[in-house]
Amino acid sequence: MVSKSGNLNVNIKGSLEEKVNEIAASDLPIITKEVSNEELEKECQFLPPNLPRTKNLRIIKIGDYPPMPDGGVHVKSTKEIGKIWVANITSEAGKATIRYGVARV
């Protein structure tokens, strides 16, 4: 498991929004699968500390990006997402928060 910490430049809002929309428009496949905790730890670069350890969990893989734990509902391709907008970015005490929304087109 890899844990990331540090500060994030909060002035990247415009470039971040542009990059995520570029990636979303690129029509990457989205794959989900159920895995054991051992597989989850082996495959994912980051694991939230509060994940249940007593059952299999689902991971999501988007294109060639690293897989991550997941529990939501998904589209089959990034092209189905729509336009993403970044509301704000905060970075305090080594913890960054990015708030965003999605507008279906």
Describe the fold and architecture:
- By secondary structure, the chain is an alpha+beta fold.
- The chain has helices at about 15-25, 35-45, and strands at about 30-35, 55-60, 70, 85-90, 95-105.
- The protein is about 20% helix and about 30% strand.
- The strands form two sheets. Strands 1-2-3 form a three-stranded antiparallel sheet. It has a two-stranded antiparallel sheet with strand order 4-5.
- A hairpin with a 2-residue loop joins β4 and β5 (about 95-105).
- It is globular, with a radius of gyration of 15 Å.
Task: Provide tags for this entry.
two-stranded antiparallel ribbon; three-stranded antiparallel β-sheet; alpha+beta; globular; 105 residues; 19% helix; 2 domains; 2 helices
Which regions are unreliable across 5 or more consecutive residues at pLDDT < 50? none
**For the residues shown, what is the average pLDDT?**
86
Number of domains: 2
Structural Rg? 15 Å
Q: What's the story with the biggest beta sheet?
A: 3 strands, antiparallel
Based on Cα principal axes, name the global outline. globular
Structural class of the helix and strand makeup? alpha+beta
Helix content: 10-25%
**SSE series:** HEHEEEE
Strand elements, count: 5
Strand content bin: 25-35%
Secondary structure tally, helices: 2
The spatial strand order of the largest sheet comes to: 1-2-3
N-C termini distance:
36 Å
Describe the SSE topology.
Blueprint: H1 13-25, E1 30-35, H2 37-43, E2 57-62, E3 68-70, E4 83-92, E5 95-103
Antiparallel strand pairs: 1-2, 2-3, 4-5
